[in-house]
Amino acid sequence: MEHIFEGLPQDKWLEIVLNASKAATNVELKRILERLAAMEILCEKRLGETWEEELKYLLSSEEVSDEIHRHMQNLAIESMGNILTQNE
Question: 59, 68 in Cβ contact below 8 A?
Fold first, then answer.
């Protein structure tokens, strides 16, 4: 049972996405796509046409790479919880 808590949350998330029920995974992936679409709209409205350039800069920036990594892990944990509660 200990192996469940080993490794990065994003790796466990992928494992869960690939092995959970199709219905639970579909709901969660649609939720993620909806949030991504909303965030892109928000970025475009707030930053204008340059938002994608800003995003590329952020993704390649050493300054925020740890923060991005931590946030990815948190999102993976949240998403796993969503899938697992639907999968019961």
Answer: yes
How far apart are the C-alpha atoms of 46 and 48, rounded to whole Å?
A: 6
DSSP string, 47-74: HGGGHHHHHHHHHH-STTHHHHHHHHHH
Say what the pTM is.
0.82
Unique residue bearing structure tokens 């930053």: 47
> In terms of C-beta distances under 8 Å and separation of at least 24 residues, what long-range contacts does 37-46 make, across chains too?
none
> Which has the closest alpha carbon to 66: 55, 76, 58?
58
Question: Which one-letter amino acid corresponds to residue 1?
Answer: M
Q: pLDDT, tens digit, for every residue of 52-74?
A: 999 999 999 999 999 999 999 99
First to last CA, the chain: 18
Structure token digits, residue 42: 């928000």
